[in-house]
Specification:
Number of strands: 23
Shape: globular
Oligomer: single chain
Strand order of the largest sheet: 3-2-4-1-10-9-11
Number of helices: 19
Strand content: 15-25%
Length: 492
Amino acid sequence: MSGDTLNTNPFIDADGDHLREECGVFGIFGHSDAAALSTLGLHALQHRGQEAAGIVTFDGNQFHSERHMGLVGDNFTKKTVLDRLAGSCAIGHTRYSTTGASALRNVQPLYADFAGGGFAMAHNGNLTNAMTLQRQLQQRGSIFQSTSDSETILHLIATSDGKQLVDKLIDALRQVEGAYALVALSEKKLIGARDPLGVRPLILGDLHGSYVLASETCALDIIGARFVRDIQPGEMVVVSKDGLQSLRPFDQRNHPRFCIFEYVYFARPDSEVNGVNVYGVRKRIGEELAREAPADADLVVPVPDSGTPAAIGFAQAANLPFELGIIRNHYVGRTFIQPTDSIRHMGVKLKHNANREMLNGKRVILVDDSIVRGTTSLKIVQMVREAGAREVHMRIASPPTSNSCFYGVDTPEKAKLLASRMSIEEMAAYIKVDSLAFLTIDGLYRAVGEAKRNNEIPQFCDACFTGEYPTALTDHEKPDDVVKATRLAEAG
C-alpha cells in the first residue's frame, strides 16, 4: 500500500475490491536458457502482480533489459524478445505497484551503472522509511528517476563507503526499514536477501547445478528445479562461479514475522510456504471457520477462486454439500469497457456469474478470503439473491481487515476499509446478508499450525488484522515532514 500509487489505467479493475498481490521475483545463475527459464518462472508468479514485468540478463560482457507493462505471456513469449536477452544469468520481476506510479519507469528490475560495474535489482516488499531516506539523499545531490521505493536502495549503494559491491548492498540494506525480499545481479554474482523479520518469502532452488531464487516454490516446479530451502530471515546468499555463500549481516531477530496473509490469499495454493502446503492451510482455515461460525444452510459456495479451498474445508467440516454456485470468467483481466456510471455496476458480473440451478431456493453459505471495501461482497450477495437463494450467510476465511499494510501489499487507506469503520453487524447489514462471520485470529493461527496467537510475541505479521506493526513506520508517523515524490505523467 502506498499513498504514492497513481493509477493511470483508464479501465475498470475487476479485482478492485481485493487486496492487491505484491510482487514476484526470480533469479537464475549459470544456465544457457536463463531468459526463457526466467520467463517461465515469472509466469508461475503472475498471480503476485499483473501490472508489469521485466527481465535483466548478463552475457559476460554486457547487461540486457526488457521491461514491459502487462502480463508476462503477452510480452516475453516472442522469440525476438528472448533473443535480446542473451546470457546465462538473469533476474526477473512481476509487479503490482505498491509504492510508485503505474508507469514504465517504475517497472523492475531496476538497473544502475556503479563505479564497480553494472547492477540490477528486483524487490518484493515495501520500505517504510524510503521517502525519508530519499529526502536525505536528494539533499546530498542524488537524482531519482522513478517513484519506486526500490530505487532508494540503489542510491544507498551508490553512496556507500563499502569496498565491494556486496558490502555496499549490505550497508544499504542496514539503513532501510520495512519488508524486502530481493534478487540482484552483478557482473559476477546473483544475490538474494530477506529482511531480518522475513516478512516476504524468498526460496532457493537448484536446476541441474544452477542455483535459482524465487518468491514461491511454484516457480521452481514449472522449470523442473529442486527446492533446496527457504532463504532465512536476515540472510543474504551470494551465488558466483565458486558456488553459494550464505551471509548473516543484519540484526538477528529471535522472532521472525512472516506475513500470515500469504497463507490466506497471496501465495499460489500449490506452493509450499515455510515447509507448509498453502492449499492444506486454506482447507484447515475453512474447517476452523466451520467450527467457529456454523450456519443452518443447504450448501457451501465459494467466491472463486480465492475462496475455494476454504469453502471445501468448511463444507467437509460442516458435512454440507460443496457446489460451484458462482462461475468465474477467467478471461477478464482488466475489463475493456470504459468506466461510465451506466456500466460500472457490471464489473462484478463480467468476472462472476451465478449458477442459478445450484442456488435457487437454497440457504447458501458464501465463503470468501476477505472483505476490503465491501463493494464486491455487496454485489456478489445481490447476484446470489437474484438467482433465487432464500438465505445468504457470508463466512470470511480471515479476521476483519481493519488496518492498512505498509509492507508491500496495496491496501486502501484505513478509512476506506469496511472493517475499520463498521462493526460486524453493521457490515452484515451493508452487504445485505442474513449473517456474517469472520475467522478469529486464533483460528487463523491454528490453521497454520500454531496453538494460538502469542499476543506478547506474535509468530507472524498480522498487522492488517491487529494493527500491531512489527517495524517502525517512519514515513507514516510524521507525514508533513516526508517529501512527496513528484508524479510525472507517463504513457504506460
